[in-house]
Specification:
heterodimer; A: OB fold (Dihydrolipoamide Acetyltransferase, E2P); 2 domains; six-stranded mixed beta sheet; 8 helices; 20 strands; elongated; B: mainly alpha
Chain lengths: 357, 560
């Protein structure tokens, strides 16, 4: 088991510019760590630098205490699962899995044993001689996993491994990955743009945006206490509304919106680095599920534009004079129809403040 | 640090490539340019005569080449598209057989193939004689000669450039497009002119550029049909007259035109054709119901197919004819298998076959090394001057064989570093060298195309699993490239066996290759012997085509 440290890791491309901008991360032994961000945020480049496929323009990469920044990928002892799996099309399944062991010149008996064990682990026993193109997408994915794990890598690196699978298979593979991680305890770095994947699988997540780390934390931290306005916008269905702090007192504060409406907030619930003083500009995060319909006069009022029914909840788009707001109400809580004027109340204990735009 | 070591390694390879390309491709072309200024009959003034199309053989020959090439594009295009539509859109009896047969002219050997046209349609040929006696007129009334003969050869050998791409495009286009056009109110005619034919345009442009280039390079057809007002003929005539300077001037002008077209073609290739986005619904071929229409289509397909395979048929027929048994009749009168038996016993022609195989094999060996290395370097490494390697690699493919020969003659008529300080002209080595220069691009192209399809992640996967670069290359990249390399090498080999144009300018009588042996036999009117040698070439091409087919299906399977 290996810990990974990235120190001021930077990558500049001639045309695209600074894709990774001085990233510092410490990933613990045996952790399932996810790099999450929109496309172009630098997450894949970071992963490829950890693997050694890209040379960093600056900074250091440490496996435990060993500096591997300039080591070629074949000496790093990593298992890499590619988005398109990159299986060797000319080799059957068994030979694909055995490749890394043959490179290491292990005795044939040990290779056979470990390949069999790896295939068992991904539930592909007996498919040794199958050709790659005879496999389904999900099976190919598991061959790629077995091939990466069989060499007992120091780090398992996964580059959007689920993005080529259909929805149901993705769910299944997610849990399979979690089980595999539990049993192997290998330090795993997972790259994805899908927040539900990241939330569901990770011990910790780093949210990346424009080549910089926005926040590192457990899924709950990131969801409930976003550090920046970007994270607040990116994670979950969040309404972030600009406001000005109108009064501050012990244990409570009031913010005023552009339309004159006011809302009292909990001064404990705000991103680090925000100065709570009268006149300060802040972003007020209102999660879609923390806004509810109310019969009385609420904090906001608006006209329902669109309703999407998805079983347990109804998601509505409400046009208010502060812009569009997303709300999510239990299906039992009423049946708003488009065109209807509604009153919205915010749960003060769920309100969270981030920096202004 | 090992990344340092790989960088030094790849630097060395790039420098080596640059030296080889400079020594055998770019350097000789520049030498020809120098010769054109200083050599006998050369000089700057000669260049000016090109642009006075009426005065002097040079201007006339450029005009002649361009006009013939232009006409060839039109006739080949019409023939190719006509055949593609005929054979791909309608279903009729024997359609599959016709589809295979119309590709047979690809196997037509370079020199013997053109000679077959002369013997079929030229003065004293089969058709003029038959038609002449049928209509009781002088047979020369039906004989083709001069420009019309050249055009006939060009059309019937170059239509595949159009046929193949047009057929593929038609096969891909799906019915929903046509149905969409009809549903929007287009008439059948409008559907053709506004939707179906425009979709063929990218294929047509590429085909036109290729046909134009091939026609400009064409040497044998003008030679056998007595057209000397084309550039390739002027180069050889000037060279034989000892005016190497003048030959170089024409070569340079021809090279400039060829390079221009190469650039145009490469530019155009980067734009992709139209591929339809629609899913499902295999195309259904029109079933013809009207009996008249059915007869017309069947007859058209049948007659064109016969017409296309006639030259090859002629070669096969001649191969079994007794030498000298053909005087005035439409066809030879006596037949034998003695020609083939003779090949094995006649040391003269047998050694020609062996010479050709040996020379081609040497050239292909070099071509594999150069072609594969440069394809890999261009696909996987990033460095300055990559475009230079790419252009220098493809240059000999665009240059006419005559020009390549003149380049090598000028560069290696004196001791050269690249010939280890020796003179190559007049030695054995110059012919394999010419084949190497001319046919390396075939290996390069085929390897590069395969590399472009190969996901770079596969190499990275091997590295991540602990393989070093050379292990990954040997165990993963090479096995995946092998079919493409083999296909390119075989194609180069067959081309070397048949190569006539540069050979005639470079060979030494001591080491006579196959094409020269055929040329000599034709000179003595030994059609039987010449044709039997031609049949051997045809068989070789067929073997290669079959192997390549299998390779292609294997490549299909490898795509995941």
């Amino acid at each position: 088991m290996t810990a990974l440290t990235l120190e001021a890791l930077t990558k500049t491309f001639p045309r695209a510019g600074k894709v990774v901008d001085s990233i510092d991360l410490q990933i613990r032994q045996g952790e399932f760590f996810t790099l999450l961000g929109p496309s172009g945020c630098g997450k894949s480049t970071t992963l490829r630098m950890i693997a050694g496929f890209e040379e960093p323009s600056g900074g250091r990469i440490l496996f435990d205490d060993a500096d591997v920044t300039n080591d070629p990928p074949n000496l790093r002892g990593i298992g890499f699962v590619f988005q398109n799996y990159a299986l060797f099309p000319h080799l059957p399944v068994g030979k694909n899995v055995a490749f890394g062991l043959q490179v290491r010149k292990l005795p044939a008996a040990e290779i056979a044993e470990r390949v069999a064990a790896a295939l068992l682990e991904v539930q592909l026993t007996g498919l040794d001689d199958a050709r790659i193109d005879q496999l389904s997408g999900g099976q190919q994915q598991r061959v790629a996993l077995a091939r990466a794990l069989v060499i007992r890598p120091k780090l398992l690196l996964l580059d959007e491994p689920l993005s080529n699978l259909d929805a149901k298979l993705r769910e299944e593979t997610r849990s399979a990955l979690r089980v595999l991680h539990k049993s192997t305890q290998v330090t795993t770095i997972y790259v994805t743009h899908d927040q539900s994947e990241a939330m569901g699988m990770s011990d910790r997540i780093a949210v990346l945006y424009k080549g910089r780390v926005q926040q590192v934390g457990a899924p709950e931290d990131i969801y409930e206490r976003p550090a920046t306005r970007f994270v607040a916008d990116f994670i979950g269905r969040n309404n972030v509304i600009d406001a000005t702090v109108s009064s501050v007192s012990e244990g409570s504060a009031v913010v005023r919106f552009a339309n004159g409406g006011e809302l009292s907030v909990d001064p404990q619930r705000m991103a680090p680095g925000i100065e709570l003083r009268t006149g300060a500009h802040v972003g007020v995060c209102l999660r879609a599920e923390s806004l509810q319909l109310t019969g009385a006069r609420g904090n906001f009022s608006g006209i329902v534009k669109d309703v999407e029914y998805s079983g347990a909840v109804r998601s509505c788009m409400v046009e208010t004079d502060l812009g569009r707001m997303q709300i999510e109400i239990p299906s039992s809580a009423g049946r708003p129809t488009p065109g209807q004027t509604v009153q919205l109340s915010a749960d003060p204990s769920a309100v969270y403040l981030v920096g202004s735009a | 640090m090992s990344s340092h070591r790989t960088r030094i390694g790849s630097g060395t390879v790039i420098v080596l490539l640059a030296i080889i390309l400079w020594g055998y491709v770019v350097g000789p072309m520049i030498a020809t340019f120098g010769q054109s200024i200083t050599g006998v009959g050369g000089g700057f003034a000669e260049y000016a005569t090109f642009f006075d199309f009426r005065g002097g053989a040079q201007g006339e020959s450029m005009l002649g080449s361009i006009v013939i090439s232009f006409l060839s594009v039109i006739t080949s295009g019409l023939t190719g598209v006509f055949l593609a539509v005929l054979l791909r859109r309608w279903d009729f009896p024997l359609r599959k057989v016709c589809q295979v047969l119309v590709l047979v002219p690809i196997a037509l050997p370079p020199l013997m193939g053109v000679e077959a046209f002369v013997l079929l349609y030229g003065i004293g040929g089969t058709f003029p004689q038959l038609l002449g006696s049928l209509f009781h007129v002088k047979q020369t009334a039906f004989a083709v000669d001069g420009v019309s003969g050249v055009l006939l050869v060009h059309t019937l050998t170059m239509y595949p450039y159009f046929y193949l791409t047009a057929a593929a495009a038609l096969e891909q286009s799906d019915d929903s497009l046509e149905e969409a056009a009809y549903s929007l109110g287009a008439s059948r005619f409008q559907t053709w002119t506004r939707v179906l034919l425009p979709m063929l345009t990218p294929a047509m442009v590429a085909g036109a550029l290729l046909t134009f280039m091939s026609s400009m390079s064409s040497y044998t057809a003008p030679l056998l049909f007595h057209v000397d007002k084309v550039m390739t003929q002027q180069i050889v005539i000037s060279k034989l007259n000892g005016q190497l300077g003048l030959a170089s001037v024409v070569s340079v002008m021809l090279a400039i035109i060829s390079i221009l077209f190469l650039i145009l073609l490469r530019r155009y290739e980067q734009r992709t054709g139209y591929s339809t986005q629609s899913k499902g619904g295999a195309r259904k071929r029109r079933r013809v119901t009207s009996p008249v229409w059915k007869a017309v289509i069947f007859a058209a397909a049948f007659i064109s197919t016969i017409f296309l395979i006639l030259p090859i048929g002629m070669i096969v027929l001649l191969a079994f004819s007794v030498n000298g048994s053909w005087r005035t009749a439409p066809l030879p009168s006596q037949y034998t298998i003695q020609n083939f038996v003779g090949l094995l016993h006649d040391p003269k022609n047998w050694s020609a076959i062996m010479n050709s195989i040996e020379m081609s094999a040497i050239a292909v060996g070099g071509a594999i090394l150069l072609g594969v290395t440069s394809a890999y370097v261009i696909a996987r490494l990033h460095f300055r001057g990559k475009a230079f390697i790419d252009i220098a690699m493809m240059l000999p493919w665009a240059l006419p064989g005559t020009v390549v020969a003149i380049n090598l003659i000028t560069a290696f008529a004196n001791p050269s570093v690249f010939a280890l300080g020796r003179v190559l002209v007049g030695t054995y080595a110059i012919v394999p060298l010419a084949y190497f220069v001319r046919f390396s691009p075939l290996v390069f192209q085929s390897t590069a195309a395969s590399l472009a399809q190969l996901d770079g992640g596969i190499e990275e996967a091997a590295l991540s699993l602990g393989a070093n670069w050379s292990y990954a290359f040997r165990r993963v990249v090479l096995p995946l490239l092998y079919p493409a390399i083999a296909a390119g090498a075989l194609l180069a080999f067959v081309n070397g066996i048949g190569e006539f144009v540069s050979t005639i300018l470079l060979y030494t009588p001591q080491y006579r290759p196959l094409s020269i042996a055929i040329n000599d036999e034709l000179y003595y009117a030994n059609y039987g012997t010449a044709a039997s040698l031609g049949v051997i070439q045809v068989l070789l091409v067929l073997v290669v085509v079959t192997v390549m087919r299998r390779v292609e299906t294997r490549e299909e399977l490898l795509k995941v």
